[in-house]
């Protein structure tokens, strides 16, 4: 009996000694997290996330070399798809959305985790960037909530037309992405919006332009008629992404830069472009823009 108790005591001692976290932490937004939850999150991370994101959370796991889209480097504390203005810290439920739905066109799959498991692993991921997350003085970004859609299905066509004008002549989205109108139509739109006709196009007007990021690699903005949009499938999703921007990239938060109605309009227009993927309509559009 004494031998069994000694073995059990030794087992418990070794198990406890391997715990990474022995103290609780306070993260941005005043979120208090117990050491037990952090240790649980570490185990979930090792099981589900480490292969891609790495032991150190730097995005250099064993599987990262074969990936076209690099896994996120959590040590930077920069997040592309939070529902807060670009550069601000996202809320926990924004991470839950990414875990639940994954990211289109990447190796980031939807994960079937309970909310408790998601909470634990999200808190653990924060420990990779302690200077960004730790401390009761750190604040979370202002959450962006979709406002009431001013168009709706009944005015979808008008929204798409307005979005086309905002895209090309107000926000000038083609300066990073690409354009989807002919010289004649672009000149007409620009004259209507800016009272200035256009005689010729830049040579990269119909090309996506490579951009620098804060992640240490170059990024190519999507061609909306071809690439899968990673964090948005609906008009409402697009509204939030346009409002928030994409953290660590050249995609700014358009909230308070253009009007709310203009953001909704561009969302409708971009969604209409997304729906052209793999259709004869896309081929006809591309042939007209050569």
Query: Which structural class do you get from the secondary structure elements?
Result: mainly alpha
Biggest sheet: strand arrangement:
1-2
Using only C-alpha atoms, the radius of gyration works out to 23 Å
**How do the helices and strands follow one another from N- to C-terminus?**
HEEHHHHHHHEEHHH
Under CATH, the topology of the largest domain can be stated as: Cytochrome Bc1 Complex, Chain D, domain 2
The overall pLDDT average reads 93
Please give the domain count.
2
Outline:
elongated
Residue fraction in strands: under 5%
Largest sheet: 2 strands, antiparallel
Structure description:
The chain is mainly α. It folds into two domains: 21-133, Cytochrome c-like domain (Cytochrome Bc1 Complex, Chain D, domain 2, Orthogonal Bundle), CATH 1.10.760.10; 153-288, Cytochrome Bc1 Complex, Chain D, domain 2 (Orthogonal Bundle). The protein contains eleven helices and four strands; from the N terminus they run αββαααααααββααα. A two-stranded antiparallel ribbon has the order 1-2. The protein has a two-stranded antiparallel ribbon with strand order 3-4. β3 (211-212) and β4 form a beta hairpin. The longest helix has 16 residues, at 2-17.
Provide a compact summary of the structure.
By secondary structure, the protein is mainly α. Helix content is 41%, strand content 3%.
